[in-house]
Task: inverse folding
């Protein structure tokens, strides 16, 4: 259960005393928002962005009726989540298209953000849409950058225009000429990574946009970026008027709060997420997923929803009652697994939580789907009486069960131990409001 | 003026800088509860982890309360001491030859560039160096490394794209053993620490080094981009668990981010910072200096 500690647990704690009253008060909100603020900072949201956000959300939250179906903590999370989602804009991965082709897309960003790989991904994406893109190599500084783009272009099956280590402004210009001449409808200009404080190189990008018509300027940002994201995004946007943002390396376990900072300081749409090293690893940006990721709850919110749909109130109450009466049996234990299954299985459940996959090693015994099947087999091999009264299980009974279920006696023992632990754990939760599913 | 101070001079000008925020905080007339709450925010907003920031603030608050301190200058100097304490072992790093250095890290942090600079640094310090192009995955990676090898005037051992990186390591070790080279630096493909198959590949390379060159001191350096946020901790934890980390190369310090996360890394995981990268030129590499680092954060 410690897995789900973090924001929701802290909020639960704050609200634990006040579940009776009908409205969220100012003081409670203030305490809760302090936790939300730390959670945002921990997710790399910039401090001033986090502060602005908190004050907006607080205003909304104070005086809100507490909904029957949610705990106050869940309700605060819901409000925070909704606001975050709204702030990050909509799912919009449409690239600008010029009425007079070719449409010109220019990349920009810091060193190592992932621009060159992204060029290949975009080219492939456009090609699949029936477009005819041309890649233009304007990173004349980083060693072997042109070679890298050429290989990426080859993999995507897209032509690469290059002029060696020439002047990037001239190369962009002649690349576009080349596109016009040979009927390419889209030009993707790869540029060298540069620091936003590098005057000469920022000037160079400005010169490209002054010399040729650029329809789309995509700021590429590493999703692992910390507090500095605001400085970077602000400067690039001020100097170049970027038209969209792409977040890269989202296949890692970063919480990705930088994206909120970037959105807040530039107001520009986040158009794509880049989620792997393969050229097909490009996805639209989903604000709702990103919001729960930033809050560190993965899809806890959609899990709450899923849980509510999959498990009827009645079922939940029944189990809760059993715990209270201490009459929870191995039969109920199976039922619990069935509920889990309805929610997409333990593995699916955990996979919705960012970072959990690696931290927990999803293949670990207690959450392995296989293991669940074996557990079920063991329980099904028991007699009714044994299921209700596991204390009667002696060696010979256990041997019979192991044989019947195709498992070992160790596994049977292990299951009995786990069952006891679950009972203990549930006992400790007794008295808490409502039955909470495994999270 | 030290290198760091020069770098941090640029930071002073950005109004979002931590130095500026701290100045604002210490300019207040009273040190109350809010003071410590805000200090916590400021520390976290320099990319220090929440738990280290919390520890620093708690220690400071407890001491200041028990000593009944009201003097702001004293609190400030004690804050610096707390931060320095976190970095206690940050510059505990020494390289002994013969050595094998394997540079690892996530994509785009500056591994290859740092290797070029490191090779030059070592040859300038009278060591013979060979580099191994064991990034056989990224397009044109070995070409990039070869250009750096030329610039640093060191030998390179490479293979074709898509070949087994452990085989490149094996070849490079045979070569340095035969020639009696002081230092072998191994470039590796960038990988997100969350990809377990790629982490296995690193372990394999690591085993090859241990088996084939048992007499060498084997150092695993993780390259970390100074603009990274809280994720740096997770990166170091997972890479450390896989192969063991002996030091950090903190890259891109010439930008406006200062890599505050090293404070939490040193405090929580006891990993020293071996080198810092301060630009894209061959000579843009320095040894880490914790005092300058702290002074830099305070913008002095
Ligand atoms: N400004 C700056 N750029 C750097 C530094 N180190 C590396 N880079 C740049 O970061 C980008 C990625 O570097 P590279 O060495 O290819 O990273 P790798 O993928 O980790 O090997 C390149 O454009 C480098 O020029 C540094 O210290 N400062
Ligand atoms: Mg590299």
Result:
């Amino acid at each position: 259960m410690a897995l789900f500690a973090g924001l929701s647990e802290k909020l639960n704690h704050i609200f634990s005393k006040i579940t009776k009253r009908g409205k969220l008060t100012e003081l409670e909100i203030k305490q809760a928002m302090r936790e939300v603020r730390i959670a945002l900072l921990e997710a790399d949201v910039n401090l001033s962005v986090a502060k602005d956000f908190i004050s907006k959300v607080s205003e909304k939250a104070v005086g809100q009726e507490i909904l029957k179906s949610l705990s106050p903590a869940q309700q605060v999370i819901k409000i925070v989540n909704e606001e975050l989602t709204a702030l990050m804009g909509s799912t919009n991965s449409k690239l600008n298209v010029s009425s007079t082709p070719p449409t010109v897309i220019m990349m920009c960003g810091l060193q190592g953000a992932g621009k060159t790989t992204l060029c290949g991904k975009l080219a492939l994406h456009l090609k699949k849409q029936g477009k005819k893109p041309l890649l233009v190599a304007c990173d004349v500084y980083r060693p072997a950058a042109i070679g890298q783009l050429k290989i990426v272009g080859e993999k995507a099956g897209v032509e690469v225009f290059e002029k060696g280590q020439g002047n990037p402004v001239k190369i962009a210009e002649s690349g576009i000429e080349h596109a016009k001449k040979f009927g390419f409808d889209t030009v993707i200009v790869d540029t060298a990574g540069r620091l936003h404080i590098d005057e000469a190189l920022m000037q160079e990008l400005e010169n490209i946009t002054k010399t040729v018509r650029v329809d789309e300027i995509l700021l590429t940002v590493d999703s692992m970026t910390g507090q500095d994201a605001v400085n970077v995004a602000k400067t690039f946007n001020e100097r170049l008027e970027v038209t969209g943002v792409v977040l890269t390396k989202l296949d890692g376990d970063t919480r990705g709060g930088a994206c909120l900072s970037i959105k807040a300081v530039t107001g520009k749409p986040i158009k794509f997420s880049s989620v792997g090293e393969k050229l097909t690893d490009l996805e639209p940006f989903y604000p709702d997923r990103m919001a729960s990721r930033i809050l560190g709850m993965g899809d806890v919110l959609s899990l709450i929803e899923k849980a509510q749909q999959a498990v009827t109130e009645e079922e939940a109450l029944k189990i809760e009652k059993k715990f209270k009466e201490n009459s929870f049996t191995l039969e109920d234990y199976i039922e619990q697994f069935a509920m889990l299954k309805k929610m997409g299985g333990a593995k699916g459940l955990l996979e919705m939580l960012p970072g959990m996959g690696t931290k927990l090693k999803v293949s670990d015994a207690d959450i392995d789907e296989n293991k669940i099947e074996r557990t079920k087999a063991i329980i099904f091999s028991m007699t009714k009486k044994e299921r209700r009264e596991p204390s009667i299980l002696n060696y010979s009974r256990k041997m019979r069960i192991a044989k019947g279920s195709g498992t070992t006696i160790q596994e049977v023992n292990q299951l009995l131990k786990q069952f006891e632990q679950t009972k203990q754990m549930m006992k400790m939760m007794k008295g808490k409001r409502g039955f909470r599913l495994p999270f | 003026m030290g290198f760091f101070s020069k770098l941090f001079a640029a930071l002073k000008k950005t109004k979002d800088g931590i130095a500026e925020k701290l100045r604002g905080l210490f300019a207040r007339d009273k040190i109350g509860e809010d003071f410590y709450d805000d200090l916590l925010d400021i520390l976290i907003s320099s990319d220090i982890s929440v738990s280290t920031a919390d520890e620093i603030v708690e220690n400071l608050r407890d001491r200041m309360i028990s000593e009944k301190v009201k003097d702001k200058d004293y609190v400030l100097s004690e804050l610096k001491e707390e931060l320095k304490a976190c970095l206690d072992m940050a510059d505990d790093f020494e390289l002994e030859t013969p050595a094998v250095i394997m540079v690892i890290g996530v994509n785009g942090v500056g591994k290859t560039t740092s290797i070029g600079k490191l090779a030059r640094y070592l040859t300038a310090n009278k060591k013979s160096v060979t580099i191994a192009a064991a990034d056989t995955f990224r397009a044109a990676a070995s070409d990039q490394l070869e250009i750096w090898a030329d610039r640093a005037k060191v030998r390179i051992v490479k293979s074709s794209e898509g070949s087994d990186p452990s085989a490149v390591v094996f070849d490079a070790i045979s070569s340095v053993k035969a020639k009696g080279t002081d230092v072998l630096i191994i470039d590796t493909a960038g990988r997100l620490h969350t990809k377990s198959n790629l982490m296995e590949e690193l372990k394999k390379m690591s085993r090859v080094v241990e088996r084939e060159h048992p007499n060498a001191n084997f150092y695993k350096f993780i390259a970390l981009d100074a603009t990274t946020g809280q994720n740096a901790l997770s990166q170091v934890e997972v890479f450390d668990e896989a192969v063991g980390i002996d030091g950090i190369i903190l890259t891109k310090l010439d930008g406006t981010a200062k890599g505050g996360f090293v404070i939490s890394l040193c405090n929580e995981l006891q990993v020293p910072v071996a080198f810092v990268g301060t630009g894209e030129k061959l000579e843009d590499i320095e040894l880490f200096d914790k005092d300058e680092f702290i002074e830099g954060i305070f913008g002095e």
Remarks:
- Strands of chain A lie at 103-108, 133-138, 160-161, 186-191, 216-222, 244-248, 270-274, 282-284.
- Chain A touches chain B through 51 residues (CB under 8 Å).
- Chain A has three domains: 5-87, 103-297, 302-431.
- Chain A is about 55% helix and 10% strand.
